[in-house]
Amino acid sequence: MESTHACYFLQFLCIILVLVTFPSMLPTTLASDFSIKEATIQDLQLAFKRNQLTSRQLVEFYLNQIKIQNPVLKGVLEVNPDALAHADRADHERRTKAPGSLSGLHGIPILVKDNTATKDKLNTTAGSFALLGSVVPRDAGVVTKLREAGAIILGKATLSEWSHYRSNEAPNGWSARGGQGKNPYTLDEPCGSSSGSAISVAANLVSVSLGTETDGSILCPSSFNSVVGIKPTVGLTSRAGVVPISPRQDTVGPICRTVSDAAYVLETIAGIDTYDNATIEASKYIPKGGYAQFLKKDGLRGKRLGVVRQFYEFGGDTLLDETFKLHLKTLRQRGAILVDNLKIDNELIGDQSEEIALNFEFKLSLNAYLKDLVTSPVKSLADVIAFNKKHPKLEKIEYGQDLMLQAEKTNGIGKSEKQALLNMTRSSQNGFEKLMKRNKLDAVVTPFSSFSSILAIGGYPGVNVPAGYEKGVPFGICFGGLKGSEPKLIEIAYSFEQATLIRKPPPLRKLEV
What we know:
The chain is an alpha/beta fold. The chain has helices spanning 2-21, 41-49, 55-73, 83-96, 141-148, 161-164, 195-202, 219-224, 259-269, 278-282, 318-333, 353-372, 381-390, 392-395, 402-408, 415-438, 452-458, 486-500, and strands at 76-79, 109-113, 152-157, 174-175, 179-180, 208-213, 228-231, 251-256, 304-308, 337-342, 443-447, 462-470, 473-480.
């Protein structure tokens, strides 16, 4: 008997040793054999319905994963101290309310980027100590919609500080408060600025997340971290309560593991917000019945897709070249009509119009945001710059603040600023819009997030879908279209995703702080 007990004890020690050495191998499956890891919103809702899972168990799982993985990945900046209480409330509502009366996001944990206001115990700082302790007047418009849908705000995701509008010297995914975010596949470049949102979803630290984009900040981290990102038409989702860069280009969108999850989140957050006038005009693009209806496996059939060859120059990388040849073949096999060898006139190549516009827009919009705060350590961009200089150890001043200094030098909208805006409008009309209309395209398909600037300056939507791994490094494929084309893009992206099913979770590895 003693030798048997000793054997059991040794087996127990071996199990503990394995779990400590490889923390990602901690159980992801409940006693009911339901696996949380990689579960979609639909999977989770079905598990709720079958009493295989509660929102409390789901939140506890993610809090545990954050505790294990976040010291290395740094995808989460803060967790909501009330998350478990909100989960208990969701479980109670599920037991007491009529079946079918709850939304698809009810009881689902979600991370929001730390530039997105939450009127609760969480901070909203854009990753900067300069805004630590500031008090927002209300939830951001998109957060209000999430709460109304019954989603659980799990916490705040890390980001490139000030949405990467502090300095060109600062690395992607770095902020003073959050540290350096890491790609869970490579422990290297996560891309920015919605880096934490993509890292956390990819590594199963949360179900779904929100990111924001001014130029590439949803599409790029989604591509780098093998997740799905939707960059909506500007104004389709409210920017109210989001630390701004450019009201003309800023947009809020979902970052998820699947196109279906992203469609459900977009369906929840899109719509009119009286605190953001752009949502009134853009609401005309929202389809009756929402976006989930466009999750069609045959969504590529009959779609005309433009292939702009200047974005397929891989510097002699034959593996990437062969991969995208296969993807274009898949698109054809699924019924898409490829209009190949297209060129897009981009009048802004080598031009500084976007930089000029973002500089003055950042100063004006940030000052307005700071003025609207209930309390704040800083009241203007000038105050932020002064704070950074005064607290170099906090703000890692070695990275500089060149972008902020450029923006502070601007003085409203003068002749050069008006010309910059006109240049971008003309470039969009004579370039992307003309290409789309002349060739009767439903979308343009490009590798990675290489098309992001063209989509950004015109306020156009784009969807990134995982497309492969080069030596373990993830990359995506992007479908972009004209304003309001989200239904078509979702059909295309979902059909491609279902035809390829490329995404795989990050590899198991020992995470060392």
